[in-house]
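User: Hi! I'm working on a homework problem where we have to compare a predicted structure to a textbook description. Could you give me the structure for the chain below?
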Amino acid sequence: MTANSNSKTWLLASLIMGLLTLGVFTPLTALANTQLVGLDFQRTQQGNARILIDFSTLATLPSAEQTSQGLRLKFTATEINSNLINLYDTNDFATQVSQLELFQTGTRAELLVQVEGEFNYLFNTKDNQLQIEIAAKAGLQTGSEPENNNRLFRYTGELISLSYHDIPLRDLLAELAAFLGLNLITDDSVKGNATLHLEQVPSDQALDMLLISQGLASRQQGKILLVAPAESLIKLEEQQYQAHQSAAKTGPLEDAFIKINYANAKDLQIFILGDQKTSTPESSSNMGALLLGSLPLPKLSPETEKTIENTRRFLSDRGHLLVDERTNTLYVRDTKEQVARIKSIVQTLDVPIDQVMIEARIVVARTGVSDELGVSWGVSNVSTPQSSNLISERKVNKGAISNESLLTGSRGSSIDFNPLGGASLGFVSNKLLLDLELKVLETENRSEVISQPKVITSNRNKAVIRSGEEIPYQSSPDKDGVTTTNFRNAELRLEVTPQIVGDGRIFLSLKVNNDSKGEETQGAGPTINTNAVETQVLVNNGETIVIGGIFTSQKINYEAKVPFLGDLPLIGWLFRNSISSQEKVELLVFITPRMINNTLAKK
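Assistant: Happy to help. Predicted structure tokens:
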């Protein structure tokens, strides 16, 4: 009995010691039943941070805690592969996440995610992988567009806060759809659970991020939202496209006549057909034959047919587009959808073109006159108030204004061009006072308005104003001794091309030529002295610009007289004085563009 009792006591003690030894010397990590075997980091197309963690078994969701530095994740009963325990720098990915630290604490694996600024995060599990997506909270509410035009910055839904752990995905989608006021249709393959924690984010962004994290996509028509795997939606849309193409090849065709009011029907045909030139008969005589079915379509080579197919912009393969140039009408034969599309295009393009009236004043003036007119050379006057009172300090006496010009110098007598007087561009602030100033200068024999044309042109079309003479000359006799009379132009030519820009201002392309007769040459006619200025300038509607700096030497004939007494018969010459001198004068070109209201044209 004693021996047996001692034996039992010894066996019990040995068992206890063995268990204690096993508890002391067995590593704590041996109790862990899951291994963390992979860690990866990505930057999404939306600029978010995505952390991918791989496990040896099905992935489970960690406990998450937001700290002042970022996010702390704890994985219970999880052992980290020793090669992965490290500190990772993620600054090169240009996301909010700057650093990852993975370490082991007993039987628990921990991941510290250092995040800059406020953020939201979303968990998603797929087989043995856990995906963590982190997005900026501050960036979600800004109205500015980033350079890559990310969808992240364009959400407008009502702000929402969500915090769910391992909730069925279908229930979460239904809740978000209800919050957005949408009816939801989910594909049968949408399954699984999701965990997310969002605070005060746009509801449409919460839905978008949830879909992205689960590999899903959505399509919305009206108040109905369809959610399915992205691959399934792509296949569905491909099937719909094939069905649409089949209907276009077999469906009925419609005929439509589209009357063109303002545009050129031929130009619209080229726009609709692209580079296609030979796909359809174009003359109006062929239109009736095609309608009656008596005109066969042209037989084209396979290469030409392929080229035509590639260049058809808005027609189906069976569509035709003809032009009746006599009535400026388009004839379209195509499917109902394509005909409606072409009508919409024509309605957009067939609008009246804006028109611009160009008022010009071409003035010959003595040097220094431009300064007295208050011309700001080389400085735009776009910010000058319209209530400006004076152009210069000249006192205007309306009673002294006369329409009679005493400056009678001939443009044809110009004999010298000063190369030092380079052309320059200036601005005048007040057109009304400019008219008064020019009239006063004329009464003082200091300037002469030699031309004051007005012309209306459509937007982006050139207007040309010409004034001058044709100089005849005899050519050298030919072998038969016959001479012919030829002509050379010596003219003042102004070309203006206006272009109305979006803010209501006018971009002007200007070209001014001031040609005059030069020296005579034997048998070759007179030489032509050419002075030219070409420039481009942006001006306000109704603003006056000045081109000056073209100097010539001109013979000036003018008459000074005493008012009333100088006009008396017989003795009037006693009160008049005729003066002739060779003076340096400047050619000034004043140009004022004005947009014309198209109200009448639209009626």
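For your comparison, note the following. The first strand starts at residue 34 and ends at 43. The mean pLDDT is 75. Good luck with the assignment!
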